[in-house]
Amino acid sequence: MGGPKNIKKVWHCATRLRFNVNNPDKVQQKKIEALDGVIQVVYSREQFQIVIGTQVADLYNEFIKLDGVHADASSSTETSEDEPKKKGILGLLNRFISFISSLFMPFLDAICGAGVLKGALALFSTVGWLSAKSGTYIILNAASDSLFYFLPIFIAFTAAKQLHVDRFVSVAIAGALVYPDIVALATNDTTLHFLGIPVIPMSYTSSVIPIMLSIWILSYLEPLLNKVIPNSLKYVFVALLELVIMVPLTLMVVGPIGSTISNALAGSIMGIYNHAAILAGIIIGGLWQVIVMFGFHWMILPLIMSNISNQGVDPIFPIACAAVFSQAGAALGVFLKTKNKKMKQVSGSAFIAAIFGITEPTLYGVTLKYKKPFYIAIASSAVGGIIIGLAGTQAHAFAFPSLLSIPTYLGHGFVGEMIGLAVSFIGAAVLTYLFGLKGVEDEQSNLDSDTDTIQTSDHDELIMPVSGTKTSLSNVNDEVFSSEKMGKGIAIIPTSNKVVAPVSGKITATFPTNHAIGITDSFGTQVLIHLRIDTVNLKGKYFNSLVKDGDTVIQGQELIDFDYEKIAEAGFDNTVMMIVLNSKDYNVEPQLDTNSDLAINLTLN
């Protein structure tokens, strides 16, 4: 990432490690993409996003322990205050999306868990496993419903954090909206008067837009109060005036306006859904993953919550679920079809993640890489979305689309939902298997058709990197190599000054001292050639590299010139080691016979 001084902020979401940096040109994107476990690197909205998958939190926890990464340069879920801001409509849209996402991201896992629990309770109640009057149901329902009931409080806290106003005053304002006496007024349709001004009875439980608007207004009021109130009085009077002004203002003006906006948006969505179900199915089903890719889904989440809060149901998520299942199906199709070992691992894990609603590994690691599976998934989900739209399926609780969210769709249109999901999943899997890899991958294809990696048919045979006498790695006078802790391989006592590529591939590691070099072939085999023992102390003397990082080489191509005789005269061991760093993936067979240039035979475990 250009070193710790280049990192302004690092945090993570569900699948991505996100960086804001001082100088993007210092970021070695290709090297990051070549790292094992990295699915994709995306540069979006002035931010580097490294797609990892569901292990991203573990990676983040290790990353912030590194020397030079300071606590003030990291935050688990926040956006960077110093993030460069684009001007114009696009910049405004980007900032708005970032703001909306920052409201939900800190408690996104809690939303997911509560939504799934709510759906499970609906399922258990429907099949008769739990009575809605039982103590178990009541307690678990409280656990699942509390977050959504008190959603304005959660939104107030995160909005205050982003808008830099008093978080606890913000929470107090939100608490007033869901205060039992205020809720009772809305339930009984009772109108109050504040200083003679009527307060329209409205329910703000589970609402989003009213409290967002309220905290936005507070972000202008608080600096004004801090400016006009003397320092000696700020401790009491700033918070006092904020509460006295904002709570009545929110209940009388901001809340009703926000609720009107919510009702209008929810009504519009339901109207479109009711009168153009096929169009809704095509747009939402076919384009949902595209919407997610560009981050626009954060703009839709408040609308979905408003639908459930105001209408009691939402039609968007049931259709969007078809898009999730189609991506999972496409990943499964690639997994069953591909002969590339690394892609089989990536697509297999991506399939499992996608089924449970996390589609980024599938998008960036599988379908977008091959392109055809992505188009197939879009087409399949559009068909599935049409079926679900015509069935009139609706979600009765907020739960991100996944296998676990299906119980929230119980009720009218549920059979259509299951048919639509089956069409999306099976259609994408079968079509991807039959046509998705045609023309883009065969037995010897590279992992990514957009990279420069070399296709080779002799990946299982590594030739000698230097002429000389072969010997077992166990005979090397260095415990790190002889113990095979770095990997299995072979040692050679050289009789030549030329180091050549033992396999075709890409140069993925070089060193300033030129005493070692790493190559990765198109199948992911990672080979390290180390010239002599402790020659790093020569600081590059007697070594001359002929290639650089990122170069593509073919088997037998010269990589390094080195004077093995002068190095030996300088008192250094003259053994050359060739190590297969990812030996655990292979059966590594050193070839010690003296009549062959073959050094190592590799076969997949």
Give a structural overview.
This protein is an alpha+beta fold and 605 residues long. The chain contains 19 helices and 19 strands. Strands 8-9-17-13-12-11-15 form a 7-stranded antiparallel sheet, with no helix packed on it. It has a 4-stranded antiparallel sheet with strand order 1-2-4-3. Helix 9 (209-228) packs antiparallel against helix 10 (231-275). Keywords: Cell membrane, Kinase, Membrane, Phosphotransferase system, Sugar transport, Transferase, Transmembrane, Transmembrane helix, Transport. It holds the Pfam family PTS_EIIB. The chain crosses the membrane at residues 137-156, 168-187, 199-221, 233-257, 277-304, 316-336, 374-398, 418-437. The active site is at residue 13.
The percent range for strand residues is 5-15%
Name the strands of the widest sheet in spatial order: 8-9-17-13-12-11-15
Overall residue-averaged pLDDT value: 82
- Total strand segments: 19
Domain PTS EIIB type-1: 1-73
Protein name: PTS family porter
Keywords: Cell membrane, Kinase, Membrane, Phosphotransferase system, Sugar transport, Transferase, Transmembrane, Transmembrane helix, Transport
Organism: Companilactobacillus futsaii JCM 17355
